Prior knowledge:
alpha/beta, Rossmann fold, two-stranded antiparallel ribbon, 8 helices, 9 strands, 30% helix, globular
Amino acid sequence: MNNAANQTAKSVPDINPGEENKVELDRLIQILQREAAETAGWTGRKRFSDPVIDAIRRVPRHAFFPERPSMFEAYANRPYPIGFGQTISQPYIVALMTELADLTPTARVLEVGTGSGYQAAVLAELAQDVFTIERIEELAQHAKRVFKTLGYANIHVAHDDGSKGWAEHAPYDVIVVTAAAQKIPKALIDQLAPGGRMIIPIGGQWDPQSLTLGIKDQAGKFTKVPLLPVAFVPLVCTNA
């Protein structure tokens, strides 16, 4: 990326590429289902459900890039730099975290780490409301512009320290954390509703990380189940 691309673009990329992304998107869906089968021993999910795949199909991933990418880049199954040391997540990871959330149409979701906004948009296709927090103001503002352009009225963005959660709108049925924490911030556990699910990578930046499913039972007991080796940027956590 050139120097200009190392900072988030000031305008929203063209979101209407016509039919040129259809072949790449179809190819991506095939790859996602193949990877789901290959990692089922870790995740317990042999394939991604139709609602999750439909959400992936509906969200134009290319619209969340800081500059308009080629359709091959936009729908490749890999992360991509968006500036500020952050990335737009690999589609497989986005699909997996969404699948593990087991969302219902009435679900209220907290996302920690808006980044490009792509994961929030996929979640918003399946949930009632998504509350997403981003500590880097430029990324938060860019995501807001993309959400507005795409018509996501059910995504609410805050520029803040995500380790504190968003207490004003708690409790949440699902919490998705898109950065790796050494340990889960207490505020996030507190803001998860009884019966709720948390999907979070746990581990240090240079240490092994594990995508982890946290479940809070109706009595408020929180348990963790490590699932899959992953590599995420670190969660900047001041409120653990």
